[in-house]
Amino acid sequence: MIAETVCSAVSAAGLGIAVVTAYRRRFLAAARIAAYSLVPVGLVMTGVVGWLADTAFSPTAWAGFGVLGIAWALFATTRVVERRRGGTRAERKAARAADREAVAPTASAPSLGPATRPAARPAKAPRAGDSADDFSDIEAILKKHGI
Predict the structure, then answer these.
(1) pLDDT band, residue 36 (cuts 50/70/90)
(2) Is residue 140 within 8 Å of 121, Cβ to Cβ?
(3) What is the DSSP letter of 24?
(4) Which of 35, 75, 84, 133 has the fewest CB atoms in 10 Å of its CB?
């Protein structure tokens, strides 16, 4: 009963603000305010407010919300774990099978092995008065990383 009265008062106040806004010749804003102010009355008339009031004071409903929360938490946790592991069980099994098939028929070792890099050449010693002295440190870092 109180919820319906509050919703009606909110709607009446909103419609009053819409009238004042329309008087100021802001018709689009007034129509938007009127639309928002009619929502509480519509909710009362459809019975949603009564249903919410009954639900808010029902221990069974709160237990149901708790069960839904636990279900959501389990779902979110499994998604996080699945992303960290690299997919579902079937996807991991398919990836392992693909790794076994990566060996060439006549090869004695897998063709997809650890990559070997050629040994890095020693950097030139900087000369006095050379204009490239400023960039020698940067060059050394880039060569160290193979760039």
Answers:
(1) very high
(2) no
(3) T
(4) 84
